[in-house]
Amino acid sequence: MEWSACKNGVLQSPIDLSSQGVKIVNKAGELKKTYKPCDAILRNRGHDISLKWHNCFAGLININGSEYSLQQVHWHSPSEHTINGARYALELHMVHHSTDPNFNHSVAVIGLLYKLGAPDAFLSKLITNVTSMADEMQEREVGVIDPNMIGIDGKQYYRYIGSLTVPPCTEDKNCFNRPSSGTPTSCP
Q: How far apart are CA 15 and CA 69, in angstroms?
């Protein structure tokens, strides 16, 4: 079965991230981003809504000298990951692929956990399109979207080696998660 890792894997995401016993390491997994505004398509894939940049290069992140190009972002509501057992209203995954085909950790996913709060500029820019396609399998061009609008700034992250959270549940992925906030109207 090509999705056997979903059931039998040992590094499966999502997980409950615990603040107890967390090792704080300065500069471990430091994220350096060089994103660029680019044309994007919003797509309802049935199990989530994704935003994919097309016909251009939306940039990359550098993790301790390894480069990963941004492929797409998608949302899960409620969040898949929890922190100390608490689930968040929304979770955004930024999916990046390694630019080095020989690198072991070929995918890096940055997760952003949203609690209800102040408006989020990135979500606010997309909310009209997201809500109008929430119940239909469709896609639409949404023009130029700047990945820098996604609030992944900050230096505190949970980092672990995990898996994709949807089939084929491929393991050995770099996973980064951090909390953020958004208004109720900005959460699809």
A: 25
The domains located in the chain, with CATH, are 30-186 (3.10.200.10)
pTM for this entry:
0.79
Mean pLDDT, 10 residues at a time, over the chain (188 residues)? Answer: 53 68 62 91 87 93 87 88 86 87 76 83 84 80 93 69 62 54 37
Beta bridge partners of 44: 49
Which active-site residues does the annotation give?
47
